[in-house]
Structures are given as structure tokens and as C-alpha cells.
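Input (structure):
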């Protein structure tokens, strides 16, 4: 009797756990983010805070040019304005993990300017590099918002930069043998490592830059052309992602210290084209865009499943088919460090480009669901075979 009661108690505990896991899995959520109030539906999302509560990008207000946007769960999407005294154009490209500092591109009377917008809500231009044309773009920021990277006109042509409050904008140079181009696309949270793309002696090449080692080329795909670029780096610095040219076309890639540059493959039915835009904190999950049989398609990649259409995963694994009816997810630009929240843009049911956000359950929850399913199967089996 005691053993029977313990079994009942154990089954009850498992039932509660399985029920909770089921609710959490069904809790996978997808939302279109809309547009700036009063505007047309034309928005995109490039960056997301660590907890997924803030998303930044751009939108098109009615009768005006593109404006940088900030979306929150409580307030929805709003424009964050333009440079003081500048022209009506801005675009947000990244946000700090706490959602307080936003960086991007805005236009003033002389050209395009990298900007930083702090918690005070004021957009400030970051200036230019010496000797070049007056333009600059900001693409990434450190976790505390004190260090920013991007590209700016310089005496070299277009050059990657590192900006901080003490030193201003400083050029990072160009790979040996190259001329005329380097771009900083991403950085580690401490700002110590910057990744991007530079011309080199053989063509263009992804790079990693540190204050000690300077700019170092990351190499190209074996058998392909001399063309690659690094778009983002994981929080732990173990994985860099971007694009490389293979023998058949441009492919989404990742770099690791142990394996070097590796292709992530392609989606079924499309041409060979893809690019990785962002990576989770431990390097285990990568998102980007690739060509499939339906056109430009947002993808999600991990070492177990390889490259998959993000939309197919949401429909088949998380039962979001009704929510996604009429949508086509085109590109995934941002992912949180835990790999659970992804942002990007796509074509909505009205045929307009719209920013979106999706939150998926933790992998451990999915494993628990499978375990629970197995328990149910094993529990039912005796009654079917009359073993008891």
C-alpha cells in the first residue's frame, strides 16, 4: 500500500511537471510589431535587448522618410526621432542588453552620421574619421553603450572604427594588402573584440580586431572565392558568424577557433545564397537569411538540426500555423543571448514589410515534453496488452 501511494504521488508530481511543460511549450509566441503610429506598414527590426523586451529598427511614418524605431511590449512601436537640426532620416541598428542605449545611422545637413542615443533620449552624432568624406554608420555597441563600431569615410576610403567617449572615433585600419574598405559589424559585450569585413590582398575577408593583435583575417571558404565577412560574434567570443563565397555562391558561415570557417549549408529548393546575421551567447544558435523555394527566408541553425526555415520550425514544432497565416518571414537579424527570442522582418498578410518578434521555449522544456510523452506511452501499454 505504501509503495502504491508513493507511485501515485510520483505520477502526480510528473503529471504536474508535464502539464507545466506543455503549457510553456504552447506559450511559444509570434507577434508582428506594426509600424510607427500614423504610418504605413513598412518596418524592420535589427536589434533586441537581452530579455527581449526592447526591439529597435526602422519604420516609415506617413509622408516622411524612414525613422529609427523602438518597440516595447507595453508601448508598442514608436519613432525615436532624428538628429537635432538634421534631415528626416534615421535607422536604429543595435541596442544594449538593458535596452537603454541605441545606435544607428541618421542624416544631418552634411551627410549620414553614426549616432548614439542614451537613456536620456537624446540622439547625438558621433562625428567622422579624419581625411575622409563626411559620412559614418554605427552597427554595434558594447553592453554598457560606451564603445561603438561601424564604418566611416577616411583617408583610406571607407574604414572600420571604434568609438568611445574619451577618444572619439578611431580608425581600425585595413587588412594587409587591402585598400579602400573595412567595416566593423559586431563586437563582444566588453568591446574588446570587433568583427567585420576588410579588403585584403586577395579580395575581401572577414576580420577580428583587438587592441593587442590589431586586425586579423579570418580566412575564406575552401574552394570558393576570396570574399567573406563577419557580421556578429557570440557573447563568449567562441563563434563568429557571417557570409562566405563558395564554389557555388554566397553561403551563411561561422568561424570557430577549432574548425575555422564552416558553411552552414542551404535551405531546400533555393539558390546558393545565405548570410548569418546574429548568434546566441554560447554560439549554439545562429539566425540569418537564405534563399529557399519560396524566396528569401529567415533561418535558424544549430549543430543538431542544421539550417532550417524558422517559419517551418514555428509551424511544425510550436503549432503557430494559424498565427503565421499569410506571413513569409524573410530575414532574422537579431537573437538574444539565451537563444530564445529572435527578431527580423518579413512580408505580412497585407503584402507589406513588417518587423516581428518570436519567443520560443527552452530546449530543456522540449526534452521534458518528450519524456512525458514516453511516460504516457509506457503507462498505457500494459492495459493494451493485458499484462496486468
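Output (sequence):
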Amino acid at each position: 500500500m505504501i509503495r502504491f501511494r508513493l507511485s501515485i504521488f510520483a505520477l502526480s508530481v510528473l503529471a504536474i511537471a508535464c502539464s507545466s511543460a506543455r503549457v510553456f511549450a504552447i506559450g511559444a509566441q509570434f507577434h508582428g510589431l506594426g509600424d510607427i503610429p500614423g504610418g504605413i506598414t513598412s518596418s524592420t527590426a535589427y536589434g533586441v535587448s537581452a530579455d527581449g523586451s526592447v526591439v529597435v529598427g526602422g519604420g516609415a511614418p506617413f509622408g516622411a522618410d524612414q525613422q529609427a524605431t523602438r518597440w516595447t511590449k507595453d508601448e508598442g512601436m514608436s519613432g525615436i526621432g532624428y538628429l537635432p537640426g538634421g534631415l528626416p532620416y534615421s535607422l536604429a541598428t543595435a541596442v544594449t542588453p538593458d535596452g537603454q542605449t541605441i545606435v544607428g545611422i541618421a542624416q544631418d545637413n552634411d551627410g549620414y552620421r553614426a549616432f548614439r542615443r542614451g537613456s536620456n533620449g537624446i540622439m547625438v552624432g558621433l562625428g567622422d574619421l579624419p581625411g575622409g568624406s563626411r559620412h559614418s554608420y554605427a552597427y554595434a555597441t558594447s553592453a554598457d553603450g560606451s564603445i561603438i563600431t561601424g564604418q566611416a569615410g577616411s583617408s583610406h576610403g571607407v574604414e572600420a572604427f571604434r568609438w568611445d567617449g574619451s577618444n572619439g572615433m578611431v580608425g581600425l585600419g585595413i587588412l594587409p594588402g587591402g585598400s579602400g574598405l573595412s567595416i566593423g559589424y559586431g563586437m563582444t559585450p566588453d568591446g574588446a573584440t570587433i568583427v567585420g569585413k576588410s579588403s585584403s590582398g586577395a579580395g575581401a575577408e572577414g576580420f577580428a580586431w583587438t587592441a593587442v593583435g590589431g586586425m586579423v583575417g579570418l580566412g575564406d571558404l575552401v574552394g570558393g572565392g576570396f570574399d567573406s565577412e563577419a557580421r556578429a560574434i557570440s557573447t563568449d567570443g567562441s563563434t563568429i558568424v557571417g557570409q562566405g563565397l563558395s564554389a557555388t555562391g554566397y553561403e551563411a558561415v561561422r568561424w570557430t577557433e577549432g574548425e575555422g570557417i564552416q558553411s552552414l549549408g542551404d535551405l531546400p529548393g533555393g539558390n546558393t545564397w545565405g548570410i548569418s546575421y546574429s548568434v546566441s551567447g554560447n554560439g549554439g544558435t545562429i539566425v540569418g537569411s537564405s534563399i529557399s523555394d519560396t524566396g528569401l527566408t529567415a533561418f535558424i541553425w544549430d549543430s543538431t538540426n542544421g539550417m532550417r526555415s524558422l517559419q517551418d520550425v514555428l509551424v511544425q514544432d510550436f503549432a503557430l500555423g494559424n498565427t503565421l497565416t499569410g506571413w513569409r518571414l524573410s530575414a532574422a537579424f537579431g537573437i538574444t543571448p539565451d537563444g530564445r527570442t529572435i527578431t527580423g522582418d518579413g512580408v505580412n498578410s497585407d503584402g507589406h514589410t513588417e518587423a516581428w518578434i518570436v519567443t520560443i521555449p527552452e530546449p530543456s522544456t522540449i526534452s521534458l515534453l518528450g519524456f512525458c510523452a514516453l511516460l504516457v506511452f509506457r503507462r498505457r501499454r500494459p492495459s493494451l496488452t493485458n499484462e496486468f
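Notes: Residues 1-26, 364-388 have pLDDT under 50 and may be disordered. The longest helix spans residues 2-26.
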